[in-house]
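Worked Example 4.2. Read the sequence first, then its structure tokens.
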Amino acid sequence: MTPLTWLYVPGDRPHVIAKALVAGADVVVIDLEDAVAPDRKEYARAVAADLLVQPQPVPVHVRVNALDTPWAAADLAALRSLRGLSGLRLPKVTGPSEVRHVAAAVPLPLYALLESALAVEHAYAIAGAHPSLRGISLGEADLRADLGVRADAGLDWPRSRVVVAARAAGLPPPPQTVHPDIRDLDGLAASCAHGRALGFLGRAAIHPRQLPVIERAYLPTPAELDHAETVVEAAATAPGAQALPDGRFIDAAVVAMARRTLSLARRG
């Protein structure tokens, strides 16, 4: 199933993790990094390790601490062979060597978070660093601070850069970063629509109430499904470039996009 929602939850709050596992997210991300204070890191790591000894009802990832911190090595050692862990999210990656370092130590799918100007410049090299890397995405709060960007439009170039890098490396489209205001569901919907237009697929969330908004924004609309079905049917009866009755031209690229739309609608 193509994941559309990635729900982050603080690693030092076991009761919140339990609720997140049944909240309806496609992936739950236990966070050992930004959501956990330094004096709670060991406790959060132990909570995650104890929980993930057993398989979970949904895929669970853990965002470990950045590799240049005092906690990263212990995170990797504790998590490297747990049956309930589906992947590691690596924060603040700046180059491909960091991905290779973790891949050599941990036999798990990896996901790199690009959170600085240097990381964006290295986006394609990071995306192709190792077969264990299954996805890249932006960490926009840190990137915004690094660039000194105030207006949201200032991040559109890095966003497009990451979308292109993922595609060029054969990775899935990246999910959007979190929308920090959990009460602003209209703003979240508008931001998702913009992200979808840029080529993102799905989004990280920090509260369960954000999940249905993200899913609605990224699932095909009825009109998009109707058009995709028309395109695929037309291609099946008359292969090759052609014009539909409504005047719209279709070719192999349009057909491929239509099939992707139908596949996404059937993801469940």
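Now turn to a second chain, presented in exactly the same format:
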Amino acid sequence: MAAAVDLGRLLGAVDLSCACCLQYFTEPVWLTGCSHSFCRPCIIEYCKGRQRAGCPLCREGFELKDLRPNRELAALVNLIRQEVKEEELETRHEPKPSGAVACSDWSSAGRRRGEKEEEIGDISKQLEMTVETIHLLRNDLSKTKEYTSQIKSQITKDFRCMKEYVERQERNTLMFIEQEQKAAQEKIEETIHQLCVEVNKLTDIKAQTSNLPEGHRYKGSPSTMNKNTFDEKLNVVKSAVEGLKRKLEILLLEKYAQQLPRVQPPDFYQETSVCSLSPESAAKNPEPMISSQFSQWADDVTFDLTRVYKRLAITAQNKKVMVSSYPTDYEPSPNRFCISQVMCSQSFSTGCHYWEVITKDSDGWAVGVAHGMIGKRDKLGRTEHSWCIEWLGPKKQLSAWHRDQETLLHKDKPLKVGVFLELQKKTVSFYSITDKETLLHTFEINTSNPFYPAFWLYSLERNGSLTISHTNRR
């Protein structure tokens, strides 16, 4: 009985039947590609007439030369067959039941044994398929790790090449400036020497002239030096470097960052105190100003990617808009502006609302509000339902606009503008923000539509930007 129990456990753990004939393996062989086993006669008959066939279980291709004897499986099958024979011998020596009851019991036992063997076979096949699936998934995982490592290495190499290129250009540019400075210095020194010689000549001529008659006067004039172009060359180099820096900023902050998912850094990277920032970093990332008058109504507004002109690039978590030297690859939108304007995603219908905009980085801009139905070609302040203040670089003047009517404000250019929207009073006010708030202009608004923060940037051929400043709500 113990042998029967062990035999049952063994049959439950291992499938010893061929998938083709569903009988115990005869001369078992395994495929070198997928490792599945079959009877040699069965698999040869299966491949008859074909040079290359697919595995009956997983469809992986193989040829007859890929068959290998599975000696371990053959030994196991022989062992099982021997155990079965011994069990049958023991059964023969036991007293047989008499009559129809004995036949019935024997028949029932045979059916139960057949059902059990069939169940064991099904479980074995499921087990084999599961093991095979695990094997395939592990292979995929290994390939994924290998591919990821290759991509990371390539990206590291690419960034290293870009860094080396930028450093090389920096060295070449500095060398060029140094050479130009030396050339200019030599030119100036040569000119000074020539002028000193000229001074000596003029001194001698002056002495001689005092003794000459009136009709004999010196007709010459001091030599003059050509205008030095050193400053012009330096300005050209400086402009080129600034242009390259601008393109890299747009590429890295807009193109590169938007194509990747945001990665949340560890908490300890965020615990940076203000005192640890350099002066340059502090200038680029000013501390939030808490306005004594308006902080309780401060709103967090962001630029809308569906309502921005394609030549304006939005960066810094949709808080900065800047002029791009080439069109930005935004998603198609029926509301996208056809002129250099952008609106925010947030709208306001009731209550009081306040936000601030850094304007110091642009020579031409407009800051205002408009309702959502403003046309794609309607400039801010030139329609019935839009209001703004505007600064134009060439004219150097600040003005307020509504219904295409201009009101000169006779104020200096504000470096930061605060916008206070009071919907109960139906007014919108603009302030110049320094260490205090200075009122620039107040409009009366008369529309029931929701209001959106709206902006306009002047001259797409020049670099310029507007940045929404974070204002803490008190």
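Notes for the reader: The chain has a mean pLDDT of 79. DSSP finds seven helices and 19 strands in the chain.
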